[in-house]
Write a structure and sequence with these properties.
By secondary structure, this protein is α+β, with helices and mostly antiparallel strands. Helices cover 42% and strands 11% of the residues. Helix 5 crosses helix 6 and helix 8 runs antiparallel to helix 9 (216-236).
Length: 342
Amino acid sequence: MSSIPSSSGSANGHNVHTNGIKSHASSEAGQSSEQQMDGSQSLDYPTNGFVQPPYQNHHNEDIVNHLYHAGFQTGNYADTILHVHQNVYRLHAIILSRSPFLAHLMSTSPQTSAQRAIYVHLEQEPEVTQEGFAIALGYLYSAISLNLIRPDNARAVLAAGCLLGGMDDLCRYAYEACRQSINVETIGAWVQFIDSIPTSDGTTTPDLPKTSIFGLYAQRLRDDVFHFLVDTLPEVLEVHQSPPESSSSGPGGRDVLLQIYARVPFEMFKTAVESPSFRLDPSGSDQARFKFAKEVIEIRKRGIARGAEETVVLAFGGGNYGGSSVHITRKMRKRPLWKVNA
């Protein structure tokens, strides 16, 4: 009695069903081998100028559009219920498995009914907003979600994309939107954000644990903000130019720069002003940075530096003959000790 080999493979002891259709790759490989043995032309070469049928791209777009509108937006034929931010999504496990984070949740969540229920807890991730998560979730179904990214939600989308994983293109797109949104009006908020995320070496305040889901993008954003403060901002505000004779039109560029640096955390303030790349006059002199630092420190005494003593010195000599450099230091003021008479 002869045995007929099965056309289906096996994985983890189970037969792999292919809906009665061989894979596209294996079919092409088989046809190519047969034709080459017969001496005919290989299918690796174009036929009549077409590498693939001309209708294939349009057909694929129709499928993706159907998945997004009927699957994601409407939730038809859903087999998975996802709970997040007091919202309920009716979704599909085969699509959600594109995300390593959601695939892990599905594999570790017990299924007690026809529909699996999974819960995403984001209480410790304030950067992942409801809108950002929804856009990243929709990206699992279709790239049309990229059209929903705006400067005001890009950071939340980036956070959600990094959390879910498996969507590098979305993260790169959202990151680029974040980078382009850094300007004079938003730099204050970006500085606060950078100060709130842990540094690349993992150092954080012991009693205030912080988490960051941005991964490598955290350092990229930190570098972008610092580059804007040091290189771009003086150019945009035109501080190199002489101040106008009349200031009736509003604060000048130098005044705006002073106010921005007056609110910058000390380490970033120190590193920026000490950098020779921070040019406040056409020659980029240390004297101009020293004078600027003194003015900023006077403003910081009444605000962010209250309770600390910040000083700046212009050091001459050192490693280079005749050279100079700017140094900024900070120390906490000691509380006065009161003598108690016995």
